[in-house]
């Protein structure tokens, strides 16, 4: 009996150690594209409540979370932060662990934030990194134990804008790469997302960070992703709170309506309260949106 207890204790310790040691892999094997020499250095801010915020990202990475029993589906997570910082824990690492419970291999994307000092064209850099993340996961699918045709993209707030941009701008990838690997996500999950850069719906901080204080009309339209949906847009799952004062709920409504117009399968869950940035837990309701997500993923065949 003692030997059995000792064995179980050792197994628990090993499992815990492995859970705390998530591999972090660089997004690019060589020089990081669209970069220029600068004095910019990454800043990691560990707040009093334990939250982690990262800004001034220079070297983008993927943190890999493997489930105990993988089902072949992969999800790349884009944390939010207004294109000024990344909320890495409650919109990244915590979400990855929840996806692991569903059998999904999760990748938390630390993408570069728009910065004219360290980038040659800041408006395309986040998308460049998101598309490279999709490319990398597909190219190394066998290593990660995933199916390259089951790679989804998930984004929160401004990370939702990035995910929806990747889900609507895949036909012409950004950058100079000659890679032929598809950068179209197989499905999208958008949580209280910034969708539109229109004057009526925009989140001013996200728009300014990405395309400047006085963007051209064509830039506003290009990054208003409700206007970029086609019949090829991936199936989409949306969550938003009606009382969100930071990113108007009409962002999700506009994306959902455009999906309906183009016959793109979409499911949306709206909560009357919850505000913005609630991550996995909307404290105003007993309903858990990650359970709704699990049902949607199961119905789509991504958990089998």
Report on the structure:
By secondary structure, the chain is an alpha/beta fold. It has a single domain, classed as Alpha/Beta hydrolase fold, catalytic domain (Rossmann fold), CATH 3.40.50.1820. The protein is built from nine helices and eleven strands. Strands 1-4-7-5-8-9-10-11 form an eight-stranded mixed sheet, with helices on both faces. Residues 1-19 form the signal peptide. GO terms for molecular function: hydrolase activity. InterPro entries: AB_hydrolase_fold, BD-FAE-like_dom, GDXG_lipolytic_enzyme.
CATH class equals Alpha Beta
Compute the number of strand runs: 11
| CATH fold field value | Rossmann fold
* Oligomerization status of the protein chains: single chain
How do the helices and strands follow one another from N- to C-terminus? HEEEEEEHEHHEHEHHEHEH
Radius of gyration: 19 Å
Largest sheet: 8 strands, mixed
Q: Strand content of the residues, in percent? A: 15-25%
Counted up, domains total 1
Low-confidence stretches: 2-20
Strands side by side in the biggest sheet: 1-4-7-5-8-9-10-11
Q: Which second-level CATH architecture applies?
A: 3-Layer(aba) Sandwich
Structural class based on helices, strands and sheet pairing: alpha/beta
| Tally of helical runs | 9
Percent helix range: 25-40%
CATH evolutionary superfamily: Alpha/Beta hydrolase fold, catalytic domain
Query: Whole-Å distance between the termini?
Result: 37 Å
General form: globular
Compute the average pLDDT.
93
